[in-house]
Structures are given as C-alpha cells and as structure tokens.
Amino acid sequence: MTATAPSLTEETDPYCLSPASAAELLHDAPWHRFAVLGDSLSAGTGDPSPGYANLGWPDRLADILRRIHPGLAYLNTAEVGATTVRALRTQTDRVITYRPDLIHLPSGANDLFRPDPDFPQIERTLRCVYELATGTGARLTVFTLGSAFQLPHFPDWQERVRRLNDLTRRLAAEHGAVLVDMWDHPVNSRPGLLSADGIHFATAGQAVMASEVVRALAASLTARPV
After folding, report:
1. Does residue 122 lie within any of the structural domains?
2. Tens of pLDDT along 132-148?
3. Across 167-175, average pLDDT
4. What CATH number has the domain bearing residue 73?
5. CA 20 to 30 Å from 94, out of 39, 50, 54, 77?
6. Which residues form the domain of 175?
7. Is residue 189 part of a domain?
C-alpha cells in the first residue's frame, strides 16, 4: 500500500473537493454522457492511499456528475499501455458511437517510452484524435503530465515530458478543450504521490486530479457566452 503525507486524508487535503462541494461547482453541468479514452492515466490506475477512497479520477468524476444527473452514462475505453496510435485505432470508434457530450482525451505518455520518441508522429496522431473528438460536438478535457512523473533511465525524460505537455497545451487551445495543467501543480512535491511503479498517481493523487478536473470544468461553464 502506498503512503501519502501522514497528516492528510481526503477530508483534510487542501486540494481535494468533497463530493458535495464538487457537485455544487458543477450544479448546472449539461453533460449526460461521459466518455474517456487513452491509457492507464486516463483509466485512473493507481495504488491505494490510506485515508483516500480507492477510486481513480474518472470514476470519481462520473460519481460527481451522477449527483447532478443520476442517469449519467459513462464509458471508459482506456487501456493500460495504450499508445496514441492504439487509442486511435481501437478506442475512437467506440467513443464516437457512444455519442458522448463530455470526452477526456489521452496525454500520450506511453509514446515517450521509446528510445527515440517520434514527436511529429505523436502530434499527427493526437491531432487526429482531437479532430475526431471535436467532431462529436462534445466538451473535451485533457491534462498535462505532472513533473513527479519521472523515469530516470531516460536521461532526457523531463525534456520529453515538457515537449509532450507543450503539444497538449497547443492542441487543447486549438480545439477548445478544457486543460488541467498538472506539470507544476504543488501536489507533485508531495511524499507518496506516486504508486509503487513510480509512474501512476496513487489514489491520493487521483483524488486531487478529479478535483482539478472539476474546477476546470466549472470554470469552463462560468466562461460560457450568454
């Protein structure tokens, strides 16, 4: 079991919203069909943290949205180990057929595990995913990778992540996606943030991620034209 900061629980974590508070922020959310595609980061994979519910961020978000719309439909096609090419080939058709009005898109983390990542190809593939998702008319969300996500056997790892995050920011801006920028979030310096694999947020981090997605979605609703 992965430990987090000993003084924190889900109720006392300053970055976590309670389910009731999160639902209040999204009280006028229009979404009834939520879909997620991508890899294990999209799936919300992570080790348990003491004091936090054992839930990934997308399941948490679905639970919050069900407080507003009890009949919310939820589909998560994310696959552990999926690259952007795999997500494009095996998941996008299912998501489009599902007719969602809220879609979370992948950040492309698994594309960085190659000896020499092909960033132009990553951009072409992610751009195709964004364009297909935009065509549904759904609200899109995406997050950047946090700086705590490190693989020391790649000497240029942080530069890889920075390049991918810059791409995510650019595509999000071009397609009007709600961006949750986790790169320099204060939670990155928290002891016990990551699971034993050193890659995935433990459930303490999943709780923070869900809260940040809620905040970003709430801000997008406030910014809607009247």
Report:
1. yes
2. 999 999 999 999 999 99
3. 98
4. 3.40.50.1110
5. 54
6. 19-222
7. yes
